[in-house]
């Protein structure tokens, strides 16, 4: 199976999952708002399992699992003993850690917040007790999925989150049916009942469990079996853990930056108030989460799909010592990612307010969210570059270098976040934090690129530079056309059609997004960008079939 065909299969699952994720986020925003205290309480609690998972083993598994499983397949049993032992170890470790972190929910909530009232902390903690068991199932999902990826079966890993979103949407619908909508936070955090907490957070965790367990079905279809095996010695886990040590260090410093940034963002709630009966919408933790969802849409659909397919291929080339082919894969992946990221960045910045209006029913909250989206999307292209380059280093089992350029990024991020905490007014705190993050990612991307070049040689800079120039020209032209259409519709000011209602905003995004995409592709075709042919060829073949 070709890399781009594999990427297309993964992207199709990711697209559907992200569409459902957007529906889920819209329903959540309508239910508890985006700039409300209840939304921030749930936002912190629901993010905790992701943060803890990342600290413990998330990136460790991603960094070492595929290369190790590829090597294990050379064993006489095809790697079954290795996989059984690794999965048994993971289930044991994840189970113990999940129990410990769930019991530590009050401590974790207090770590990620600052300046919250006792009632808001209590609500966030109650949510966290229900959300933290997600940690176990995230780990199980990653391990089961990476075993499938290592065998070039990419679809299930990317399609499983669809089930997660379906379950969560069903839970959200049940919540709305039973408790109604409260987008402006008229219900205070003190009046939330146990039934509301259980239904909202419990179904979120149920969705993650379904996402993990469904992968056993695909294991069975492939003829894979799993048997508990506690004989962990002598199967090669020690080299994997040694390789993972730098990745674990990288994750620790990343989460330190996340703790600082979330704590600073949480202080913005202190600026919320009603003035002359008008609610002052100020973005905080929940808005940052929605903006991240919007930011991750093009990244997860394009970059993750492309990089995951190339990662397995680069790992095989590393095992076979075909380093020139590995570098060609990296260069091809970077150009394809850049082509998509330029269009996505331009479109998301131009349509930030209409997109935010789709998620948020009130104009002030939509404007607050739109500002955060703009600041965050500035870092989309370098973020995607870093993701791809990290996979190249991981395929070579070099986790030390990614630690170095991530550590540098975190120094910039933490320093900038602390400056924001001291000098920026609450209304602009999350916007400023997002700008700081984007700037630090630019530094990280430049450093990562040159560190790879220094260790492994050139990627063909002239080809990459020329392709990037073509993408930039096409993005400027398509952005100009999109801006003209937006202005013709009245712009993004309050009362204008693009932000008049959720339906009007969605129609505006669909219209301008489609036109911009068509213009972008036409300009690239006129500029004879070969990447467009590389991307569209498997799509045309897929449609013919």
Short description:
The chain is 79% helix and 1% strand. By secondary structure, the protein is mostly helical. Strand 1 and strand 2 form a beta hairpin.
How would you sum up this structure, described in words?
- The chain has 545 residues and is mainly α.
- It has one domain (3-544).
- Helices cover 79% and strands 1% of the residues.
- It is built from 20 helices and 2 strands.
- The protein has helices at residues 3-32, 37-72, 80-103, 105-111, 118-131, 134-150, 155-179, 194-213, 215-221, 237-266, 285-319, 323-350, 352-359, 363-377, 380-395, 400-423, 429-456, 461-488, 502-526, 530-544, and strands spanning 274-275, 278-279.
- The chain has a two-stranded antiparallel sheet.
- A hairpin with a 2-residue loop joins β1 and β2.
- α16 runs antiparallel to α17.
- The longest helix is centred in the first third of the chain and has 36 residues, at 37-72.
- The chain is globular, with a radius of gyration of 23 Å.
- 52% of the residues are buried.
- The mean pLDDT is 83.
């Amino acid at each position: 199976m070709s890399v781009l065909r594999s990427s297309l299969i993964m992207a199709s699952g990711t697209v559907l999952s992200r569409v459902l994720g957007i529906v889920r986020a819209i329903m959540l925003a309508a239910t508890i708002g985006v700039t409300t205290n209840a939304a921030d309480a749930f936002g912190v609690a629901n993010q905790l399992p992701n943060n803890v998972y990342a600290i413990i083993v998330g990136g460790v598994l991603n960094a070492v699992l595929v290369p190790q499983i590829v090597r294990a397949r050379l064993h006489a049993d095809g790697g079954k003993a290795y996989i059984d032992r690794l999965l048994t170890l993971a289930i044991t470790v994840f189970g113990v850690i999940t129990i410990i972190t769930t019991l530590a929910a009050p401590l974790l909530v207090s770590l990620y917040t600052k300046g919250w009232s006792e009632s808001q902390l209590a609500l966030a903690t109650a949510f966290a007790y229900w959300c933290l068991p997600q940690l176990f199932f995230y780990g199980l999902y990653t391990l089961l999925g990476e075993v499938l990826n290592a065998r070039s079966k990419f679809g299930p890993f990317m399609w499983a989150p669809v089930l997660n979103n379906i379950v969560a949407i069903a839970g959200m619908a049940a919540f709305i049916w039973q408790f109604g909508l409260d987008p402006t936070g008229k219900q205070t955090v003190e009046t939330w009942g146990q039934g509301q907490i259980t239904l909202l957070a419990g179904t979120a965790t149920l969705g993650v469990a379904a996402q993990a367990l469904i992968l056993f079905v695909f294991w069975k279809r492939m003829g894979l079996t799993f048997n508990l095996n506690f004989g962990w010695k002598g199967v090669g886990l020690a080299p994997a853990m040694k390789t993972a040590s730098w990745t674990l260090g990288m994750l620790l410093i990343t989460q330190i930056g996340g703790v600082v940034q979330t704590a600073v963002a949480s202080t913005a709630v202190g600026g919320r108030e009603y003035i002359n009966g008008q609610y002052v919408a100020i973005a905080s933790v929940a808005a940052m989460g929605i903006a991240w969802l919007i930011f991750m849409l093009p990244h997860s659909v394009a970059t993750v799909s492309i990089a995951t397919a190339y990662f397995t291929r680069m790992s095989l080339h590393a095992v076979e010592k075909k380093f020139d082919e590995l570098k060609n894969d990296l260069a091809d992946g970077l150009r394809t990612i850049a082509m998509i990221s330029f269009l996505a960045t331009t479109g998301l910045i131009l349509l930030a307010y209409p997109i935010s209006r789709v998620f948020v029913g009130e104009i002030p909250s939509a404007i607050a969210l739109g500002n955060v989206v703009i600041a965050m999307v500035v870092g989309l292209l370098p973020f995607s570059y870093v993701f791809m380059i990290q996979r190249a280093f991981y395929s070579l089992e070099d986790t030390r270098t990614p630690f170095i350029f991530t550590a540098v990024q975190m120094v910039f991020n933490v320093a900038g976040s602390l400056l924001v905490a001291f000098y920026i007014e609450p209304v602009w705190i999350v916007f400023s934090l997002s700008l700081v993050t984007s700037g630090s990612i630019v530094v990280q991307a430049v450093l990562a690129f040159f560190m790879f070049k220094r260790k492994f040689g050139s990627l063909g800079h002239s080809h990459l530079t020329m392709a990037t120039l073509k993408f930039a020209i096409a993005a400027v032209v398509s952005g100009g056309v999109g801006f003209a259409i937006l202005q013709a519709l009245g712009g993004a000011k309050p009362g204008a059609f693009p932000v008049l209602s959720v339906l009007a905003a969605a129609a505006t995004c669909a219209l301008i997004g489609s036109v911009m995409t068509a213009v972008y592709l036409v300009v690239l075709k006129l500029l004879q960008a070969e990447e467009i042919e590389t991307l569209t060829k498997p799509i045309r073949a897929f449609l013919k079939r």
